[in-house]
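User: Show me sequence and structure for the first protein, then do the same for the second.

Assistant: Starting with the first protein.
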Amino acid sequence: MSNLQEAELSSHHEPLRRRKRSNRAFFVFVIVWIILISGGIMGAKWYSDKIQRDVAADLERQTSAQIAAMQQDYTQRMDKLEASYKEELAQLDAKVDALNELLTFTKDNADSKTDNSNKLYTQLNEVKKKLNELQKNLDVLK
């Protein structure tokens, strides 16, 4: 073959080689873009999952703190209420004892003409009813 024929053949194959190179370059470019896009998507997914876990942990901590504070407040209120009921019960108990003593004294000193003891029994029964009611309320609160 002559130089002219060789040059003609090589010039004929040169565009084919360029097309193969440009096809290969385009293919590599597409693969790189696919890798970058999928990497970005995976990174965004990982970051959103991390943020979601952090927010859930913060909410759990805040909720636990609020529940503990509410429990402490409830316990304090119940203790105050119980102390108040016990104080009232003690006062009523003292009144019942005083009425009981007065009733015993009146009963011992009563004659057949006066019957004041019935009034004292009625008052004593009313106080006992209130005492029992307060005791039931205290039992319910416990």
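Switching to the second protein now.
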Amino acid sequence: MAKFMLLVNHDGGVFEEPMDTWQPGDIAAHFDYYALLTKELTESGELVRFMALADPRQARTVRADGVAPSVVTDGPFAGSKEALAGFNVFEVESEERALEIAARISAVPGPGGVPTRQPVEVRQVMADEHGQL
């Protein structure tokens, strides 16, 4: 079994308008889809961890050299589509299975039930010689 992290950015896929402008029913359908998918993948034992992140406008970036005081700045910039929205860690039999799950995440519905086609980055988690890290 291999672990894969699936990263979802704030990129709206085929939709330009941010989710906070969608109709309430479309927002509910979006989150209901995620809830059902999460339940299914938890019950199958494949979902290790799921984390949704707060709005990127609340993020801070820290730079430090271990000697001088840390420098803390706002960021990433709210207009960036590349700000991380959340991530999932799955333990699956193969990369192909991780890609199948990523495709299902990408198909989450947007306004009018149209799949968002939101990009999902798939990255294998590094492991030591014992299969753990």
